Amino acid sequence: MREPHPRVVLGLHRSRYERRLLTDALELGITAIDTSFNYRDFEAHRRLAEIGSDLLPRFALSTKVGFFPGADRAEHSLDPGRLRLALEQTNRDLRRAPDLVFLHNPERSLRGASDARDTLARECAALDDATAKGLCRSWGISSWNPSSLPELVDSTVPKPSVLMVRSGLLVGINTLDAADALVSWWGLPARSMWGMSPFGGDASDPVWDKLDPRIFLGGQGSSLSRPQAAFRAAYHLPRVSAVAVGSDSPAHLRELLAALDSPVDEQVILQYRDLLRDRRAVSRLEVPPRSGRPRAGPASPEDLPDGRQV
Question: pTM for the complete prediction?
Fold first, then answer.
């Protein structure tokens, strides 16, 4: 068995939740798993306990709260009462307190709210209180689109233990800059930054056949596959200490782990971020072909109002 590898978290978003997934992860030295209250139609926690209650104590387990059953589909809420009930149910379903609970995509309910700053401060304080009462061992914020959060953070907003954002080559500059701003404001140490969705949701996407991420690893990355190089680069866009990645294949996980010892070319990373900023500047001054007048355009996919990516 390998030594535990703290830089990889097994994400269970699309997992089949089979016992072998947990045993394979342990064999590979992966001892952290990440799930959510709303995964598997709100049955993820119960299913985890069913397939591996004896294995869960061997993992650092993180989960998320923020989405709840709705009339037709899951709905997002930052109501403190609902969050508290979700945490209590999480403890019952897992048969243990989670090591880390993320406030799940708070921007979904904060967008356009007149009291957004007060709401964020209240919910973070609620998770602080839940930690003090033993419902979880620590708390954090998981944000798919954190670009609106820096302007809401002030001294009234408690400091999370972990901030998790999307990472990797498909992440826009707004997310990268927002992550840096939040790290700076809260003074978060390197170990408190996590990444997620390093392949943009699909490691088999045709984009990885057209883009060669090995350029981010310099000459020493030539022996790696493109998915390996993309995964390795995700630890620097933005800079994170752990990346949550989902896979039901131990061979795929083994391949990703093998990439972690390869150094990343920091200069190329900086140049890439500069290119993203240049693209944002140009897109904001995009000229429509008919009117000829400048207009503001989305700086990156995450700026689209409904959160869709292109």
Answer: 0.88
